[in-house]
UniProtKB/TrEMBL annotation:
Domain HTH lacI-type per the UniProt entry, residue ranges: 1-55
One Pfam family of this chain: Peripla_BP_3
SUPFAM superfamilies, per database record: lambda repressor-like DNA-binding domains, Periplasmic binding protein-like I
Species, as recorded: Dyella thiooxydans
GO terms of molecular function: DNA-binding transcription factor activity; transcription cis-regulatory region binding
Protein name: HTH lacI-type domain-containing protein
Lineage: Bacteria, Pseudomonadati, Pseudomonadota, Gammaproteobacteria, Lysobacterales
InterPro entries: HTH_LacI (IPR000843), LacI/GalR-like_sensor (IPR046335), Lambda_DNA-bd_dom_sf (IPR010982), Peripla_BP_I (IPR028082)
Keywords assigned by UniProt, alphabetized: DNA-binding, Repressor, Transcription, Transcription regulation
Length: 343
């Protein structure tokens, strides 16, 4: 069935059918209802590409992520998708874990298919965005060091969250020997969390030796870090892993070696992915409202789509986080403790 068939059956012009089905007005409510009834009876489905040529909108949002593995990304996608569906928008997701060319290819594939982009990628520096994104495409960046009026940025308070966790371990739990399982060296989140760890150690455990092991934000790298600690012959009193997946991997390595957690070593993480509260012992972690992060990103992008000529804010917004105290840190009373004030 074509739009001409609908117009003939409804006794109206093709233009009237187009206006009614696109919701652009110009027809009476009675006529619109008749057209929609005919379209439903004939099972007419508007051609997406043709509709886009008329409306200049695809009603689709693109999301470029560094990966889609793990609960953090599934929760982030869920937050974006929930907010998109509430606005009648659809979501097109791609990942770019194989490098700059992979990220560029993903953006080229989405060009012309999406009305706007949400990008979380360590590859997305100013040069990359200038080369691969059309100037007119509304874009929101997540967890990015970029500043300026071109792109709205929404960040997690990584520094404040890491600072608060080390404060909890040092001040409230009384630990001095606190190791960090850091994330990838080229990752902005990992860099900010490491800076927060270093600042808090200098403030709350001055003179203590820093012990930093490098991970990749995966369970496997956390497991390797746990094995590395045991191979060194000296376990730290507490481990702060820069994300929950590495903390879970580290917990497994310690458990396999017969090390008591939290009796011998306290283990903590960052993100508060859903599984964190269900493992044994339940994981003390920095809680990020991951779904809210995705939802907020979509809401900022929707505002750009609705008012494309409005100037974007020059400053990045920061999503606060807080420490959730559970069994794995050895604190006497599980609960919540707030981060230091977001910078």
């Amino acid at each position: 069935m074509t739009i001409k068939d609908v117009a003939r059956e409804a006794g109206v012009s093709v233009a009237s059918v187009s206006r009614a089905l696109n919701g652009t007005g110009g027809v009476t409510a009675e006529t619109e209802k008749r057209i929609r009834d005919v379209a439903a009876r004939l099972r007419y489905i508007p051609h997406g590409a043709a509709r886009s040529l008329i409306t200049r909108r695809t009603h689709t949002i693109g999301a470029l992520l560094p990966d889609m593995y793990g609960e953090f990304f599934s929760e982030l996608i869920r937050g974006i998708d929930l907010a998109a569906r509430a606005r009648g928008l659809h979501l097109l997701v791609s990942s770019a874990h194989d490098g700059v060319e992979d990220a560029a290819a993903a953006l080229r594939t989405m060009r012309g298919r999406v009305d706007g982009m949400i990008i979380l990628s360590p590859r997305a520096d100013a040069s990359f965005l200038h080369t691969n994104l059309p100037e007119s495409l509304p874009t929101v960046l997540l967890n990015s060091p970029l500043r300026g009026p071109r792109y709205p940025v929404l960040n997690i308070d990584n520094h404040g969250g890491a600072h608060a966790m080390v404060r909890h371990l040092a001040v409230e739990c009384g630990y001095r020997d606190i190791a960090l399982v850091a994330g990838p060296h080229d990752n902005y989140d990992a860099q900010q969390r490491e800076e927060g760890y270093r600042a808090a150690m200098a403030e709350f455990v001055p003179g203590a030796a820093l012990r930093i092991l490098r991970g990749e934000f995966t369970e496997e790298s956390g497991y390797r870090a746990g094995c590395e600690m045991m191979a060194s012959g000296k376990l730290p009193r507490a481990v702060f892993a820069a994300n929950d997946m590495m903390a879970i991997g580290c917990l497994l390595a310690l458990r396999e070696a017969g090390v008591e957690v939290p009796g011998s070593v306290a283990v903590t993480g960052f993100d508060d992915i859903p599984i964190a509260r269900y493992i044994t012992p339940a994981l003390t972690t920095v809680q990020v409202r991951i779904v809210d992060l995705g939802r907020s990103a979509l809401e900022r992008l929707a505002a750009l789509l609705d008012a494309p000529d409005q100037a974007t804010p020059p400053e990045a917004d920061t999503l606060g986080c807080h420490v959730v105290v559970r069994d794995s840190c050895g604190a006497r009373s599980p609960g919540k403790t707030s981060t230091k004030k977001a910078r």
